[in-house]
What we know:
- The protein is built from three helices and nine strands.
- It has a five-stranded antiparallel sheet, with no helix packed on it. A four-stranded antiparallel sheet has the order 6-7-8-9, covered by helices on one side.
- The protein starts with a helix and ends in a 6-residue tail after the last helix.
- With 140 residues, it is an alpha+beta fold.
- The chain folds into two domains: 3-69, SH3 type barrels; 76-134, TATA-Binding Protein (2-Layer Sandwich), CATH 3.30.310.60.
- A hairpin with a 4-residue loop joins β6 and β7.
Amino acid sequence: MGVSRRFNEEIISILGKSVVVEMSDGNVYQGKLLGMNERFDMILGSPSGMEGKVFKIVLNGDFIKDVKLVEKPFDLRALADRLNHVFPGLVKLREDIGAIIVMDKIKVTEKGVEGVGLAAERVRSVFEEFLRETKGDVRG
């Protein structure tokens, strides 16, 4: 996998996550990263310290000094390993799309499980157990 492609995948993985962005003038913004373009212009939602006044802020990529992820990322690889113990040889980790594919028909992302049937129910129970152990919560 090329370095540029891996960089892009890492950037995509922080979309929707809480970040702290420091600007070259020293200003610091924290919020949910809603979008970014190839110039690294960013849109933050619900910026801290501006609740009720500002709902989104657009930051000029030319003046961004650094971006810090302040939310623990979802460990897709660890979940894929766990699913592989239950479904040996039937689990494909697709980091490029942020998903795990089980039996070529069940899709698992950090948001949940897409699929129906007994196998999908088993995948869902492994997913929910994984969430309980790693985050202390279960998503519906």
